[in-house]
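ok, trying the design again with the full structure, not the truncated one.
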């Protein structure tokens, strides 16, 4: 299958392939990992701030031109560490690149593996590390990555996830539920 990821200059980045316990077993290009459904290391970032009625989470709508899940809402930022890069360093880098602000005090909330197949023939098969934290500066998204952002309270986000799940990427309900749970249980503070 010869699918090129339109508008993705990182399609030839080398990603870290892992086993089911997140142990590194090799590498592959981003394209190869997504075409062949290879389990690879990834991360999802949830940025939050104190809102008027309690903590709010920043959601990003993926740019319509993305190779999959374009136009769908997701957590603040998500991507893959490159070979030789730690997951935490990659999370800070991608927040800067995608959202134009600086992540602050990112901490890993949890990690999980998932698989999602898309009509295009591509597949996300990721061992996803979920980070949560704050930010500094103004959110100024890269339009090639993010077409819109919005802040949502936990109650409003939970309701929208339940009522309109088709508006979200395949991983967003899992990642956002983990983030909301961490905030509500006091494991994470704004």
């Amino acid at each position: 299958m010869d699918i090129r990821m339109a508008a993705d200059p990182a399609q030839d980045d080398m990603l870290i392939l892992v086993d089911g316990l997140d142990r590194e077993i090799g590498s592959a290009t981003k394209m190869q990992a997504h075409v062949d459904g290879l389990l690879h290391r990834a991360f999802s970032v949830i940025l939050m701030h104190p809102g008027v009625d309690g903590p709010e989470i920043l959601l990003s709508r993926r740019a319509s031109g993305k190779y999959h899940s374009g136009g769908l809402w997701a957590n603040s930022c998500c991507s893959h560490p490159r070979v030789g890069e730690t997951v935490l360093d990659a999370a800070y880098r991608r927040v800067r690149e995608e959202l134009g602000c600086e992540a602050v005090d990112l901490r890993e909330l949890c990690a999980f593996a998932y698989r999602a197949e898309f009509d295009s023939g591509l597949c996300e098969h990721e061992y996803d590390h979920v980070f949560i934290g704050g930010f500094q500066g103004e959110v100024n998204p890269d339009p090639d990555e993010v077409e819109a952002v919005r802040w949502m309270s936990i109650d409003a986000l939970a309701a929208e996830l339940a009522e309109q799940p088709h508006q979200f990427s395949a991983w967003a309900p899992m990642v956002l539920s983990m983030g909301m749970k961490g905030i509500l249980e006091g494991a994470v503070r704004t």
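Keeping the full-length input from now on. Residues 94 and 188 are 21 Å apart (CA to CA).
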